[in-house]
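hey so i finally got around to running the thing on that chain from the lab meeting. sorry it took forever, my laptop kept dying and i had to restart like 3 times. anyway pasting the input first so we r on the same page abt which one it is
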Amino acid sequence: QVQLVESGGGLVQPGGSLRLSCVASGSRISTYGMGWYRQAPGKQRDLVATISRGSSTIYADSVKGRFTISRDNAKNTVYLQMNGLKPEDTAVYYCNARKVTEAGEYNYWGQGTQITVSS
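ok and heres what got predicted. didnt touch it at all, straight out
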C-alpha cells in the first residue's frame, strides 16, 4: 500500500512557475513508475508526465519544454517543476504510483492539489 500526498499547488499568474511535490509513504517508490496527471473541471483526467523506475520520462505534448518531472528515491518523493504556466494549465494535479507484477497491477493516487493560473 502506498499513500501519496501532493503539495505545492496554488494561484499563480500566467508565465509563472510552481513546483509540486508528492511524498510517498507505506512503501518505497523505487519500485514504482511515478506520474503526474491533471483534471480540469468537466474534463477527464489526463497524463501530464511520467517517470519510470529508471528515470525515463514521458510528457504530454502540451507541457513539453515547460514542465519537468523528477524523482528522489532516497526522499521517496516525486516532483513536477512547472514553468511558463498558462491559464489552460489550471486543474487539479494528481500524483500516481504504478507497478505491474506477477501478482497484478498496483495503482495508487494522491488526493490532488489545485493549480490555478490566472491574472
